[in-house]
Write a structure and sequence with these properties.
The protein is α+β, with helices and mostly antiparallel strands. The chain is built from seven helices and 15 strands. Helices cover about 30% and strands about 20% of the residues. The longest helix is centred in the last third of the chain and has 31 residues. The structure holds 2-oxoglutaric acid and fe (ii) ion. Fe (ii) ion binds next to loops. One of its GO terms (molecular function) is oxidoreductase activity.
Length: about 350
């Protein structure tokens, strides 16, 4: 395997301190980061280290439950919510990520996808409390993005209203399994290269559990940045910062002015890589189903939030199926036997 090429690109750091008085200054910084990098680091965001630790404790408690218990709240591709294990096949790899994840929402999509209180006392309340904190931070970003694009301040906040039953915003707990350090010839993927399809993602990492890498979209020369130059984004417990990235939705809503950026959690395979168990938490800002999505210059036809999300899910699902079909075609060509039946799921931002 060729060695991964790296460079130390600067991920801009943006402080939300004294937000009310600094909105315009923060807007300028956010617009610059969104136009040029697609990733930025938020500090002074108001979520304390203890609050982040608490949700990571809840995440560990959830994932330590037996699979049969977690399977009571299975992932649904229609609702983009629930638990999956070793089931997310990324178009960039055509193979399942070696991880499990649990996606939670505020609205009707979550019906029947919470474990009961006896199984995991306090979990639901604390998870929703944390998601509300992430929403509060997100709404500050939304005001800035609205100003940057010439929309009224509340424009994106209304389109992402989590108190409405058609909210599609997702809090995602992720748990990557330890990877054997011996070279056993098996190629494993943690989170294959992808762009998120949401508005903006807030990512919480744990100290020492590295692996997140980015390849800014304007610099990637291949669809999934396979042999491109990547940049490691290390967790920074000192600053308690949140890593944020622009998703496809905001890219489209800004008429491509802001860039959705390729990223991955690298499958460890080179010296210095982190092979241990890894936990992370992502908060994907998704539009209400009824939101109307169109950029200021109307570059793309108007879509509802429901249509945008459905298209994104289908795009991923289609690419996965095509990858599977291609593989199967190759297998059949070699074997000349009957086709095998298999099932796949597509999940994520
Ligand atoms: O686990 C991470 O650090 C990143 C996860 C991610 O990119 C995703 O779930 O979309
Ligand atoms: Fe992602």
């Amino acid at each position: 395997m060729n060695q991964t090429k790296y460079s130390d690109r600067q991920v801009p750091s943006i402080s939300l301190a004294d937000f009310e008085n600094r909105i315009d200054e923060i807007t300028t910084q956010l617009v610059d980061a969104s136009e040029n990098v697609g990733f930025f680091c938020l500090t002074d965001h108001g979520i304390t280290r203890e609050q982040v630790d608490t949700i990571f404790d809840n995440s560990a408690a959830f994932f330590s439950l037996p699979d049969e218990t977690k399977a009571q709240v299975p992932f649904s591709a229609t609702h983009n919510a629930g638990w999956e294990k070793n089931a997310q096949i990324r178009p960039s790899t055509g193979a399942a990520d070696q991880k499990e994840s649990y996606q939670m929402q505020f609205g009707a999509n979550m019906k029947g996808r919470w474990l009961d209180e006896e199984t995991l006392p306090g979990f639901r309340t604390q998870a929703l409390d944390f998601m509300r904190l992430a929403q509060t931070v997100s709404e500050k970003l939304m005001i800035c993005f609205a100003r940057g694009l010439g929309f009224p301040d509340n424009y994106f906040i209304d389109a992402h209203d989590i108190s409405e039953p058609d909210s599609q915003t997702v809090g995602r707990l992720l748990h990557y399994f330890p990877t054997p350090e011996t070279n056993d010839g098996v190629i494993r993927h943690r989170a294959g290269a992808h762009c998120d399809w949401d508005f903006v993602t807030l990512l919480f990492q744990k100290a020492g559990q590295s692996g997140l890498e980015i390849c800014p979209g304007r610099e990637a020369t291949s669809k999934f940045g396979v042999s491109d130059i990547w940049t490691k984004v290390e967790p920074d417990p000192e600053s308690n910062s949140i890593i944020c990235n622009i998703g496809d939705l905001l890219m489209s809503w800004s008429d491509d002015r802001f860039k959705s950026t390729l990223h991955r959690v690298k499958a460890p395979c080179e010296p210095g890589d982190f092979y241990g168990e890894r936990y992370s938490i992502a908060f994907f800002n998704q539009p209400r189903k009824s939101a109307k999505i169109q950029g200021p210059n109307r570059k793309y036809p108007m879509l509802t939030g429901e249509e945008f999300t459905r298209n994104a899910m289908q795009r991923n699902f289609k690419a996965v199926l095509e990858a599977k079909e291609k593989k199967e075609g190759e297998r059949l060509a070699a074997l000349q036997g009957p086709p095998a039946v298999s099932s796949v799921v597509s999940v994520g931002a």
